[in-house]
Specification:
The complex is a heterodimer. Chain A contains 14 helices and 21 strands. By secondary structure, chain A is an alpha/beta fold. Chain A folds into two domains: 6-317, TIM Barrel; 322-373 and 406-468, Alpha-Beta Plaits (2-Layer Sandwich), CATH 3.30.70.20. Chain A has an eight-stranded parallel beta barrel, surrounded by eight helices. Chain A is globular and about 80 Å long. Chain B has helices at residues 12-25, 29-38, 42-45, 50-55, 65-74, 82-86, 93-102, 105-115, 119-125, 132-135, 148-161, 185-196, 213-216, 225-236, 250-259, 288-296, 314-325, 346-355, 449-452, 457-481, and strands at 177-181, 200-204, 241-243, 262-265, 285-287, 306-310, 330-334, 358-360, 363-369, 376-382, 394-401, 404-407, 425-426, 429-430, 444-446. Chain B is globular, with a radius of gyration of 23 Å. The chains are: A alpha/beta, B alpha/beta. Chains A and B meet through helix 11 and helix 12 of A and helix 5, helix 6 and helix 20 of B.
Chain lengths: 468, 482
């Protein structure tokens, strides 16, 4: 039976699912409910400098009627008194000793202020400290948050101050609003950090109200750039996590953040080396209850894969991400359309013609392959066809051939495998699972990378169209 | 301009003089446009009967905005979409659906109307199971097809709610004019197309209101009479001229031919066939089309207790359902063959069962009994035979007490007035070139039921549209040749 138990920077964890420092961890009452729902840990909403908030604070972008593909916020750190937060940390730890409570901290860039807050958070019973060097709005204007994370020297210096005082593990939370996140990660390491968390939110403007011409979220007719998160940012987070985890100078445990909402997301981040995962947007959307399937699904996947612990698969994919120049130029795949699954939407056809390499054709019902018919010609032909309502009484031949259950041969696209470059686009747009598969074809060529070509004195071969 | 909308019955002499009066005015398109705008909208002239409204609510209630956007987002946006191909008018379905999803409702309605000027009626009246929705690729994906009809109605309703301004203007005046005989969907579509080509379009209809079967013949729970009229009001914005209560005979037709550059025949079919049995002229025997027109216009608001409908086509089902809704306790649909041979769509049959219509298969009336009015049907059951040519054999006689007999055994043709026109008929239907709508007399074009034997509103619209384009091209060719 696999287990989700793990250890992060020396902190024992009942599972890798933590709530990120955000509105879901605003107070002890919330966090205790989250622990009851199955969360293994929580990073407390950042404690520190007294602030005031505005209303409104969040805005999102929807996609094809799905809500909150991406979420943006201009909320600042905790607006509750430090002592209240600390008292509640004590209470939560007393009631839930096996659950992880990390205190997220942000104070002015002053050694004494940091020493003071570290001492108080640890005295309250926090299992570890997360230094918020990532908040991209409001606090950064006052020299905190991402204003620290964006300058490696500050990042290193403040981490050093904290480490002078801290007795618990110190996690530095990194901002993605930087050219190369590895610079900040290395600085944190240099400052003595025990672990990292990444990514914080991304600078964004989510949208503009086309009636009022005002940006969102709207605060009395104006907005401010906010922090972007949610499913939309996951690929960016995956990339940054991979960059950090593959960096030889960093070599620290990392708690991954960025668009995580399912067990698959969690597995992917762990495969790129994450020790734990932190979740915010998905909980803001659906509530704490989502953790049940995150646990259940991850365990089932581990069982199927034969993994007993998270360590069994942690980081297995890190080395599979490489520089482009190391990719095999002689690896060849082509698209195969499985006719029996094709529903005849022809999205692959239009995608290939307008968005790729014009190598999918609608010529199966013709007597011979015809690669010269353009999409416009096909549309025109259809529009010139006379259709009538099929009425049994008047129409001798039924509609069974073109009936809804069968895709007519003329609507099933054909891939010209000679011309197919194996770009994947058709298989990505196909709405039917497994209808278009990308299959390897043996071209008899040995693996060869760009780097190998260059070192052998070869340059690029101009593309030759065999049909010309 | 002539609007003799108060008179249902028009004398032939009146009709002749009216037509001539019309002809005298027909060179002045400005006059037409002005007279249209001064006229009460057709929608406002619709008879409104509370009992009918109450008993015939929407069979398919409309989508609200939230549901419409969710449904629109389900559409895959197929290339060369099968729904568009299946639609006789080739509405660009994915395009209008994506415009609903994007919130461009004005553009959505324009996309629909561009292909089908009666897009609102069709969204309600079309048998979409065998058209666009039947062709939806979702069927092959174990998913519900996109609710195209409801989305189309949503876009068209939005257009009407926003003032109902037609998103097209008439074309630049060519000085040409066309008379359209019959004011049903084929003529309306043809007229709209002609106006967009700058050709004058003048419709002549025997009834007091336009729309033909679209107005008077579609079950009220699908397409209310008033909704048909509301849509036709849009055509007035294009300057289509209407002449009502004019029954075009061979004399008027020759006048129209002399005064117009082309004629479009959109006359539909004739009356319902007779059974040819005793008692058929008794009070309490009615044909289905009249019955439907009567309840839709509020002339009939209740049905007697026992109703028999003879026939098993879509019209028979509409009439039977109507009788149920009008309060009949017992409605029998009587058909001489079996369930498998009915010409009604499968979904219509299912609907009739749900309404509570009972079916007598392999049964035919041999006499209608009654002293002063219908009292009973004399029926005979027939040997079930496989749809072969041999007539079914009588098995046994029985009587059914009945208060109202509705005949729905097919329509005859209506082509007598064409006898002088050198227009070739085929099986009683006007023979046309399918692409242009042109008849064997080049000045005559035709479309709709009089050419196709009786299909759907959308088929008539497609015919009319093609004929409109065909007439414009023909007139252009005439001009080029002179």
């Amino acid at each position: 039976m696999p287990t989700l138990k793990t250890t992060f920077a020396g902190i024992p964890c009942i599972n890798p699912f933590w709530l990120a420092s955000a509105p879901p961890t605003n107070c002890g009452e919330q966090i205790m409910r989250a622990f009851d729902a199955g969360w293994g840990g929580a990073v407390w909403k950042t404690i520190g400098e007294p602030i005031m908030n505005v209303s409104s604070r969040y805005s999102s972008i929807d996609w094809n009627n799905q809500r909150m593909m991406g979420l943006n916020n201009i909320e600042l750190i905790s607006d509750r008194p430090i002592e209240v937060n600390l008292r509640e940390i004590s209470e939560v730890k007393r009631r839930y000793p096996k659950h992880v409570v990390i205190a997220s901290l942000m104070v002015e860039s002053n050694r004494h202020a940091w020493h003071d807050i570290v001492q108080r958070a640890e005295d309250a019973g926090a299992d570890g400290l997360e230094l918020n060097f990532g908040c991209p709005h409001g606090m950064s204007e006052r020299g905190m948050g991402s204003a620290v994370g964006q300058v490696p020297e500050y990042c290193s210096q403040i981490t050093g101050w904290v480490k002078e005082k801290a007795r618990t593990p110190v996690v530095v939370k990194l901002t993605p609003n930087i050219t190369d996140i590895r610079m900040a990660a290395r600085a944190a390491k240099q400052g003595g950090s025990d672990a990292l968390s990444a990514i914080n939110t991304i600078n964004s403007i989510t949208g503009i109200d086309l009636n009022t011409l005002e940006p969102r979220p709207n605060v009395d007719g104006k907005s401010s750039h906010g922090g972007y998160c949610g499913p939309a940012v996951k690929p960016i987070a995956l990339n940054m996590v991979q960059q950090i985890m593959s960096d030889e100078q960093v070599q620290l445990p990392l708690s991954a953040i960025g668009g995580i909402g399912s067990w698959q997301d969690a597995a992917e981040f762990i495969l790129l080396g994450a020790g734990t995962v932190q979740v915010c947007t998905a909980v803001m959307h659906y509530g704490y209850r989502i953790v049940e399937d995150m646990s259940d699904g991850l365990l089932a996947w581990m069982r199927n894969k034969g993994f007993e612990t998270l360590d069994d698969f942690r980081g297995l994919t890190v080395s599979k991400v490489t520089e482009w120049k190391h990719l095999n130029l002689n690896y060849k795949i082509v698209a195969r359309i499985h006719e029996e699954l094709c529903i005849g939407c022809e999205l692959c056809y239009t995608a290939c013609w307008d968005g790729a390499h014009q190598c999918i054709h609608l010529d199966r019902a013709l007597s011979a392959p015809n690669t010269s018919r353009t999409p416009a010609m096909i549309t025109e032909e259809s529009l010139s066809r006379i259709s009538v309502t099929p009425i049994a009484k008047l129409d001798t031949n039924g509609t069974s051939e073109t009936g809804p259950q069968h895709t007519p041969l003329s609507r099933i696209p054909r891939v010209d495998e000679e011309e197919c470059v194996g770009c994947n686009l058709c298989s990505l747009v196909c709405p039917v699972s497994d209808c278009i598969t990308m299959e390897q074809v043996d071209n008899g060529l040995p693996p060869e990378t760009w780097e190998e070509r260059v070192s052998a004195g070869m340059t690029a071969t101009p593309l030759v169209h065999t049909k010309l | 301009m002539l609007h003799n909308q108060d008179s249902n019955e028009s004398q032939a002499d009146d009709a002749h003089s009216l037509a001539r009066k019309t002809l005298q005015h027909d060179s002045n398109t400005g006059d037409i446009a002005r007279s249209m705008s001064e006229t009460t909208p057709f929608f406002a002239q619709a008879p409104r009967t509370p009992e009918i409204t109450e008993r015939f609510p929407d069979l398919h209630p409309p989508l609200n905005r939230t549901a419409a956007i969710a449904e629109a987002n389900r559409c895959l946006y197929c290339f060369d979409a099968p729904c568009t191909g299946a639609c006789p008018t080739h509405i660009d379905v994915p395009r209008f659906i994506k415009k609903i999803a994007s919130g461009n409702l004005e553009g959505s309605a324009k996309t629909i109307l561009d292909a089908n000027i009666l897009g609102a009626s069709c969204s309600r009246a079309c048998p979409v199971d065998v058209l666009c929705e039947g062709a939806c690729v979702m069927h092959r994906y174990n998913k519900q097809p996109i609710e195209i009809a409801k989305l189309q109605r949503f876009a068209m309703d939005a257009l009407h709610e926003n003032g109902g301004s037609l998103p097209f203007s008439p074309g630049e005046d060519t000085g040409k004019s066309v008379a359209l005989v019959g004011g049903g969907p084929a003529s309306l579509a043809c007229a709209a197309e002609l106006r967009r080509h700058g050709i004058k379009a003048e419709i002549f209809d025997a009834r007091p209101l336009p729309g033909g079967l679209n107005t008077y013949g579609v079950a009220e729970y699908k397409l209310p009479l008033a909704e048909s009229l509301r849509e036709i009001d849009l055509l007035a914005q294009l300057g289509v001229a209407f002449n009502f209560s004019v029954t075009v005979d061979d004399k008027i037709l020759s006048d129209l031919e002399a005064s117009h550059d082309a004629i479009f025949l959109g006359v539909g079919l004739g009356g319902i066939h007779q059974l040819g049995i005793t008692g058929e002229s008794l009070p309490g025997v009615q044909n289905a089309l009249d019955y439907i027109a009567d309840y839709k216009s509020g002339k009939v608001t209740a049905a007697p207790r026992r109703v028999a409908v003879i026939g098993a086509g879509n019209t028979a089902i509409d009439a039977a359902n109507a009788a149920v809704r009008l309060g009949a306790a017992d409605v029998h649909l009587i058909y001489r063959r079996g369930r498998e041979q009915i010409s009604a769509f499968a979904f219509e049959y299912e609907h009739a069962k749900q309404e509570g219509v009972k079916f007598l298969w392999h049964t035919t009336p041999i006499g209608i009994l009654g002293a002063d009015a219908v009292e009973a049907l004399d029926l005979v059951t027939l040997e079930a035979s496989s749809n072969g040519p041999s007539p079914p054999q009588a098995r046994e006689n029985f009587q059914l007490s009945i208060d109202l007999v509705i005949l729905a055994i097919g329509q005859s043709t209506h082509t007598d007035f064409l006898k002088n026109g050198q227009i070739k008929l085929e099986g009683g239907h006007v023979l046309i070139d399918r692409v242009t709508g042109q008849t064997t007399n080049p000045k005559y074009f035709a479309g709709g039921d009089c050419t196709n034997g009786g299909r759907e509103v959308v088929d008539a619209v497609a015919d009319g549209k093609r004929a409109g384009i065909g007439i414009a091209a023909w007139l252009e060719g005439q001009r080029a040749n002179t």
